[in-house]
Amino acid sequence: MAKPLLPDELWAQVEPLLPRPKRRRFRHPGRKPLDRRKVLTGILFVLRTGIRWNDLPAEVGCGSGSRCRRYLKAWHRAGVWKRLHERLLAELDDARAIDWSRAAVDSASARALGGGTKTGPNPTDRGRPGSKHHAVVDPQSIPLGATTTAANTPDVMGLPEVIDAAPAVRGVADDEPNGGPSGSTPTGPMTASHTADGCAGGRSTRSSLAGGPNTAAGWASTAGWWSGSSPGCTATDD
Q1: Domain of 41?
Q2: Of these four, 59, 110, 169, 224, which has the most CB atoms within 10 Å of its CB?
């Protein structure tokens, strides 16, 4: 049996973050709002399959692709995806599933035929308009942060911004006395200029990814794919 695109566990995480539908007017109420779970299922279907929005099959039962796309943009403007990312990272951090001692960054270019503020001539696509997506991940490929720049932005220039994009993570364990069961401290903001204090209580802080001698500027000099070890923690090679 195929796994559902939107399992109950994930929906329970997303539903509280979604804006409530506007109250319908008594006169001229307009179209009835779509069921938000069906809308999100349609969004996931398009993103998983890579089809065009207008090609979303009616058999999926999620409304038209154009309406799903409008919901996607509206929820982005409302900060839904940012808050969901922070919530999921907090849960992973509570489970000690994130390795803050090392990170890797890479980028990928995509066409942007519609233009926009973060587009530019793509040097790998004959100068056509495009954007570049930058992402920073931990050793298990857990996404910690992501940004978008113009396609002609060098990776070395996008590195500090993508590091700053990783949200501060404060999990349930950080609210316990003494900073959690292991005496750890809450993770602080990871910025390109922040100096790390190393590992606190045996647990690496998020800021250690960009502190000490291995600063973002130092890592950026390698360009392209890179990885950096936290100076406050001892990295071991398997």
Answers
A1: 10-17+33-78
A2: 169
